[in-house]
Amino acid sequence: MPRRRSRGPCPCPCSGAPPSAVAPFPFQRAVEPPPSAPCHGGRPPPDGARGARQAEGKSRPMRASSPRGFRVHHGHAGIRGSHADLAVIASDVPAAVGAVFTRSRFAAPSVLLSRDAVADGIARGVVVLSGNANAGTGPRGYEDAAEVRHLVAGIVDCDERDVLIASTGPVGERYPMSRVRAHLRAVRGPLPGADFDGAAAAVLGTAGARPTIRRARCGDATLIGVAKGPGTGPAEQDDRSTLAFFCTDAQVSPVVLDDIFRRVADRAFHGLGFGADASTGDTAAVLANGLAGRVDLVAFEQVLGALALDLVRDVVRDSGCGGALVTVRVTGAHDTEQAGRVGRAVVDAPSLRAAVHGPAPDWAPVAAVAGGHGDEGPGRSPGRITIRVGGREVFPAPRDRARPDAVTAYPHGGEVTVHIDLGVPGRAPGAFTVHGCDLLAGYPRLGAGRAV
């Protein structure tokens, strides 16, 4: 097995610091952000071109819609139920990696091990297990997760600390290691192809939820993302983790990739309002192996950001709540942090459901929620809050005008956009968008009928 590269210094030759690490709710980074340093703007490490040529020479044909140099395994390891429940995504060559993790202090062993894996900005792949979070399982649970990672490293032919691991499912149970161990020992590398759709269906589309997968192009590079939201359907009340994984063959240095992914996570995953309390295993990561060559970094960030936002909207739509997508756009705030805090409070507020479902909708309680979470603080004067739904003002507005057609049709599905302007006096650039689910009245009955 190849020797592990030195941990600590970034592989980028112009920076001796590890990738950045801090991001707000519900994810956080693995390590503290480094001091700013110039970087080579996406050029690979000195041996990157040689590694790329070697990988291209031994790669098997793969789907054109998948990034070059990535291989996938998915199958049934007997973790829970009869559906496929384990997936491995691996790069033929060392890839730059950026990741964010749960901020919960009750983090699962998978999160602890993955934080270690991304500390030097280089990884080879990720293994995801569905149906068991392996959280709250003590030292034995940690040993189980470490063994799974070790077995996957043997398949990929890399150091075990180059493999991320993620888990989703019930808390308080250990992996059924005899079955998982037998499954992984039967897998031989190199993996046969790049069936990302199968991986998404196997792991990220757990019982009751459709797999979520998106693809995009940036120049000659391909980006692909798979995600699973905090399941809310009848079969997933104990499955709260948000998982998202992106793979690309673009050339982006580890430091630059981590900075880009941090900004993308801030705009996308921190805008996941419904069911987005920090869970034990929340994990989002991106791997870039560089086999497609350089890309325009500004365009790359835009494409990756749009891909992540699409995935967020998809997982909310597919969350199993039986309702529609709610998009709350907050503007006119003091800063982005305030706008995000208000948006998350509103999208989770019962008063929002009452306003859109009630026979006599009243948007004043929604305005009260927005004002109550504004946290004006010393020297911050309150603004004049206005609320629009479907482009029509509903607060302040006479009650007989407060139910536009868009809201009338809202319970039947689709999407409704609520725009809240906090009206902070002066220059108020703070803005943020949060996506959530409307939680229709029938949702408690869905949960009550869940088979445990």
Question: Overview of this structure, please?
Answer:
With 452 residues, this protein is α+β, with helices and mostly antiparallel strands. The protein folds into two domains: 27-317, L-amino peptidase D-ALA esterase/amidase, CATH 3.60.70.12; 325-448, Ubiquitin-like (UB roll). It is built from twelve helices and 14 strands. It has helices at 48-58, 109-117, 138-156, 177-185, 196-204, 254-267, 297-317, 336-347, 350-357, 364-372, 405-408, 443-448, and strands at residues 27-28, 70-75, 86-102, 122-130, 163-168, 212-218, 221-228, 243-251, 283-294, 325-333, 386-389, 392-395, 415-421, 430-437. The strands form two sheets. Strands 1, 2, 3, 4, 5, 6, 7, 8 and 9 form a nine-stranded mixed beta sheet that branches. It is globular. Mean pLDDT is 77; it is low at 1-64, 232-237, 402-406, 408-412 and 441-452. Pfam families: ArgJ (PF01960). It catalyses: L-glutamate + acetyl-CoA = N-acetyl-L-glutamate + CoA + H(+); N(2)-acetyl-L-ornithine + L-glutamate = N-acetyl-L-glutamate + L-ornithine. Belongs to the ArgJ family. Substrate binds at residues 228, 241.
